[in-house]
From TrEMBL:
Name under which the protein is recorded: Uncharacterized protein
Putative E3 ubiquitin-protein ligase LIN ARM-like domain mapped to chain residues: 340-709
Gene3D superfamilies: Leucine-rich Repeat Variant
Family annotation (SUPFAM superfamilies): ARM repeat
Amino acid sequence: MRTLSKVYGKKVDTGTALFALYYKQWLKVGANEPPLPVVPLPSRPSRGSSRKMSSDSFVLSSSTNKNLYKEVFGPKLELKSTALADQNGLLTIKWGSGNDENLYGDDYNRSSLQKQDSIFLGKSSTSIDNSYAELKPGSQRLDYFQCFSCRSMQAESLTNSNYTSCNGSFRNEATALSSEFVRAITTICSSDVLSECEFAIRVITKAWLNSHVDPLIEEAVSQSSVVEAILEILFASSIDEILELAISVLAELVGRNDAIRQIILSWDPQLDIFVRLLRRTGLFLKAAVLLYLLKPQAKQMLSPEWVSLVLRVLEFGDKVLTLFTVQCCPQEAAIYFMDQLLNGFDEDKNLENARQVVSLGGLTFLMKRIEEGEIHQRNKAALIVYSCIHAEGSCRSFLSDNIKKSSLLELIILDNSKSCSGCAFAVLAELLYLERTTKILNFLRGLKDGWGGLNTMHILFIYLQRAPPEQRPLVAAVLLMLDIMEDPFKESFYRAEAIEAIMVALDCQVCNDIIQEQSARALLLLAGHFTYTGESLMERTFLHQAGFQEKCMEGSSYGKEIVVCDSAHKNEEDNEAETWRRKAACVLFQSGNQNLLKALSDSSINGVPSLARASLVTISWMSSYLHLVDDRKFPPMAFSILTPLLLKSLNYDKDVGARVLASYSLLCLVKISAGCVSFLASLDKDSIKHLENLSLVTWTANELIAIISKSSLQYKTMKSKAHC
């Protein structure tokens, strides 16, 4: 016994020295992992035939100290045979199919998982013991998934593959898989102990990285049962390091095989695991990258937490993350998720999510994304901002004050593809529907600075040529507004092009309903008077001026504007608004001439309801400035073009608001148009009845009746004198 103890002690000392050198070499900076040292144990003297033992193959006898063996080598791997098959270390394992699968193993592979592996892999509170998925003699299959859900699946065998040699020729040879990797795969799919599965994740990750993505390792990890087992760990584990390793492995798999994406989305259709991961402070950016690779649809993102979770990713995910070989910016992922949340549901749910984005302060982060980054992503951010404006119009004021105008102009310039999205211009146009004319003009002044030395009006003119047809009316309106700010009395090329584009968009014979609706918005934009939610106030303003009683306006879709301001600011606002409309009317009369009036008359009759109403409102406010036109021939011409339309609008089949607007416009035309006496005197009785009925709600009808009566008397007097 003393001799045996002495020999055994020497072996242990030798092993200790070998492991010391092993770790010393391993810890060198930049060094690759060295092969694990082999520590041969002494054999027990036998009365029977002696068996030759080598450092490559040995038999563990009953006299060997098993505890010490486990301490050095870890739990033993019980093989069907009592010895390795040959001196080359060939392992023979019995699989479910009954066929032997040969796995080449080196000295490191033939040993069990070492406790010291935790130095390389990270924190580990336990080593794998005998319960660590031993491959028992006589086992006919591996139960690959008996994890936390207590499922049991038929294991898929790890198959050998053909690989290409360096010179391009093919060799049919077995590929090395370490025994601990096989046990890790088995454990993660069969063990009910979370700590064992967490340790298995470390082993799988280590094998993946060290193999530089060996095809057989990739095939083994890509099995659906293994992927689902990893997902179980993501759901159950609370160790950030384990979760990060699992996320990284899955990201690699998804990037290489789209089938993995389908497996994950099918296993977790409501993305509960990802909601859990996105809540974790240390992992939410990495989880966002993995989820982005999966490309989930809106119907899977049903948790009420999604908007807040995505906004956190958008706020902090500005740096590119690397998950093994996968690189991605989390903000790109956040933009994708946000697009799904705001555009992937039914209209009500989309609007609800967009309002939540606004209420949680998401516009600040979205504005930053518009200002910097890749063009495609910036356009997507602009589209999301547009959705927020559509859902919560009151955010226009905040955006107009804080958004970088030059960034929008830059996107308009760079978005020069034939199928341009137009998101940047859509946002720019929406930010002009502000509650105060002073704010509208300030925003336009901010645009005048241009971008990169380019003139803003030239940028918009170029964009007008390639913009989608439904966007051209608004582009033309903004271009015209900028031109009016320059010099309202000086004709320009940009002005002519803008007015021409507006008239084309008013042609109801060639423009579809969408274009007509956008033309209506363009006309209202020129008037420049809106509520804080972006609804036009021009109709309400002129109805009020016409004496239309408030009780008759109850239930109006325009609602009531609540504005709190002192009298000084109110006077300034009123003056700015009056000055702007006076300039705009003069430009439209002088540059649009009779062609614009005819277009407005036609669209008020034949246009869709929104365009017909907007055309009538535009005629009303333009008519109030007709007296400012220097050309004395223009008012009678305007009277002859517009009067038939206005008289028709007095009919009972029109709503009372339209009839009041028509009477207001007609009164303005009558007052300024000389030579209209004969026309008024010849009005039929129906028109007079319509006015008499309308006089109950507006003073304009009473005044028109008085003027018509006077004109009729004058006409009769003139006629009698002519006979004399």
